[in-house]
Amino acid sequence: MIDKVVASAAEAVKDIPDGASLAVGGFGLCGIPVSLIDALHQQGTTNLETVSNNCGVDDWGLGILLKDGRIRRTISSYVGENKEFARQYLAGELEVVLTPQGTLAEKLRAGGAGIPAFYTKAGVGTQVSEGGLPQKYDADGNVALASLPKEVRTFNDADYVLEESLTPDFGLVHAWKGDRHGNLVFHATAMNFNPLCAMAARTTIAEVEELVEPGELDPEHIHTPGIFVQRVVVATSNEKRIEKRTVALRAGADR
User: How far is it, in rounded angstroms, from Cα 95 to Cα 158?
Assistant: First the structure.
């Protein structure tokens, strides 16, 4: 078996060129491959297309690439936590392909399974299927690029829209544990989009919190088999941020 471990995050991402497409794991601030994103940022890679549920926040995750103008286009589901994202989108600096969350997940899964396209009910009768969603504005606030209509077919008296799968150039994922052969285990909700991004990408790079030797992972507990992973690196940052903190007042405390 091939030992897929590389010495550093910088080495792991060094061949990602300008203009590459990236599938990036994470949901909100959970399960983000921070070490790999930081290495890509330090490398200076630009003109990127990202595929991710969201685009980080202003100072974390993909948000650090976005802030420096390194992302030209993103395919995402939720973008409401990033003020710089909104500014770039409305100013015509960023192309945004808004995609229903379940559809985005299936686009990645289908890409990893070798399925070129699929039909889904999500988005039928809306601009998702009928076209017209603003993808890019010009500097004056006019729609410069809008989504095109998609094929709709009827099955068993219900309409479905045709969605194409995604197979980005590279996948960046964060796992709890991984071995030298690329087998990965994700912890709790950090699993989110990570296994799907690992499946879909042509070259997948996994940062792991704990590197173990082959045979130490229970085969029945492996979430992503090593066949989908080309490189493994030990994460240099395992900081877990909380996106929104809500606390209750103690009894008798001043409001």
Answer: 32
For residue 203, give the CATH number of its domain: 3.40.1080.10
pTM (two decimals): 0.93
pLDDT digits (tens, 9 = 90+) for 92-142: 999 999 999 999 999 999 999 999 999 999 999 999 999 999 999 999 999
For the record, the structure tokens of 57 come out as 């926040």
Q: Is 216 within a domain?
A: yes
43 domain residue, yes or no = yes
- Check whether 239 has a pLDDT greater than 80: no
Locate 195 and state its tokens: 């296994």
CB atoms within 10 A of CB 200: 24
Give pLDDT tens digits for 41-78.
Answer: 999 999 999 999 999 888 889 999 999 999 999 999 98
Task: Give me 99's structure tokens.
Answer: 């995609």
166 phi/psi in degrees, rounded to 5: -120, 135
Closest residue by Cα to residue 51 from 40, 38, 62, 59: 62
Q: How many C-beta neighbours within 10 Å does residue 34 have?
A: 26
Domain that holds residue 73: 9-113+121-234
E strand or H helix at 150, and its extent? none
Contact 37, 50 (CB under 8 A): no
Alpha-carbon gap, residue 14 to 33, rounded angstroms: 16
- Residue 3: inside a domain: no
CA distance 84 to 206: 27
Does the residue 88 lie in any domain?
yes
